[in-house]
Amino acid sequence: TPGSSPRNLLDMDTFSKSDPVVVLFMQVSGSSEWKEFGRTEVIDNTLNPDFVRKFVLDYYFEEKQNLRFDVPPGSHSAFFGVQDFLGQAFVALGEVIGSQRGRLERPLTGVPGKRCGTILLLAEELSNCRDIVTMQLCANKLDKKDFFGKSDPFLVFYRSNEDGTFTICHKTEVVKNTLNPVWQPFTIPVRALCNGDYDRTVKIDVYDWDRDGSHDFIGEFATSYRELSRAQSQFTVYEVLNPRKKCKKKKYVNSGTVTLLSFSVESEFTFVDYIRGGTQLNFTVAIDFTASNGLPSQPTSLHYASPYQLSAYALALKAVGEIIQDYDSDKLFPAYGFGAKVPPDGKISHQFPLNNNVENPSCAGIEGVLESYLQSLRTVQLYGPTNFAPVINQVAGTAAQVTDGSQYHVLLIITDGVISDMLQTKEAIVTASSLPMSIIIVGVGPAEFEAMEELDGDEVRLSSRGRYAERDIVQFVPFRDYVDDSGNQVLSMARLAKDVLAEIPEQLLSYMKTRDIKPRRADPE
């Protein structure tokens, strides 16, 4: 929810202060078109307005969400002339979220020759009921349903919907041959249990399990999240009732009881919680300089950059880098090449710095990485083989130095082909999976990339010499799947970034969770 507060605005009214308003425009993804999203209230007669009205936006880490804030003078009409304009600011939503404490101050520009003041943007995440509940239940004296033995009871939980219907949201395990079962504790998001409405009915059915699937209904009871939560201080006992038995039998009391033994609530942290708490994303690039890419001077080469069009390598680098850089405060990115003979002695290297500075391989901004990449193409000799392990181990070594959750590393490898050191690469990834890092692999060119799919680990968890990866940290995509038919490079880049970056927030969270690292509290205002 970005809020805004311009400061020291230009004074456009001759006899009083200006009456400003802020109009928010959002850029349509993959195009240059801007659409108005909303506007704040008008505040009369001030050059330092604090606006109350907030803008509620859907935030996607994997997309470049460009925003434009225009500050017309607020003269109460919907249209304003250029001469009345107080300034504007351009910013990506990721920049506001990635800035310290979610506060970003930007100069207003757009009135030639004049200082227009500044705009202060504040972003906070709307808490959408992120709590997770752990509870345990047991039952007593349930009805006997099986002819030869006791019952095999299990519970089914349903949340009620707005229209009065019920949706199943959890099933316990079956406890065999008992009328007094104790079920294992289980965990469920509050969202799933009651959609965030603490007083909404939660219905629980008790069944006797049958092998053929025709489970026998024992009875039911109803409660709510609020009622369940009282069990934090006391046991809660529910009567299990079977409506049909109740109608038939005058002396019917119940079909047993269910007791809530324990109930605890934990907050689930989000990616934004960690970013706001100061976690930095460190971006490293590794580019394939093997001979199979073709001579960079030839138009058929994957490294060929025409005056009109970036190469596939440069496009992939820009697409991913321009989003990640919003979360990295120093904007310095180590960049390496692999698979080339490097001057002065022509040795083959699998992790040479693109800026030719072994002591400090960092480049300033994505533009700096692109510059060094183009410079390297002119000075090294493309060769081989295609080895990934050295650069993965290099980044893993850096990631291993700070494991407290304040730093998280993202390595982007752009390659044209088949890996030569598959065994070493698998070993390197399995080792890296316990560190605060993720690996993105973008395959360019027409090669078959089956080996990459194995590294991706989405279907089968990656293993090496009997060791399994602790987390899935690799995301692979072939660049050709994202090339826009009409030749719109901006659209191709947006599509690519969306897919390769979509898993990063979850991968970061899985690292924090396995290490029990909580986000640092952002300093109070």
Automatic annotation (TrEMBL):
InterPro entries: C2_dom, C2_domain_sf, C2B_Copine, Copine, Copine_C, VWF_A, vWFA_dom_sf. Gene3D superfamilies: C2 domain (2.60.40.150). Transmembrane segments: none annotated. It comes from the Eukaryota. One of its GO terms (cellular component) is plasma membrane. Pfam families: C2 (PF00168), Copine (PF07002). Residues 282-483 form the VWFA domain. GO terms for molecular function: calcium-dependent phospholipid binding; metal ion binding. SMART domains: C2 (SM00239), VWA (SM00327). GO terms for biological process: cellular response to calcium ion. Keywords: Calcium, Metal-binding, Repeat. SUPFAM superfamilies: C2 domain (Calcium/lipid-binding domain, CaLB), vWA-like. Residues 100-238 form the C2 domain. Belongs to the copine family. This is CPNE9 protein. The gene is Cpne9.
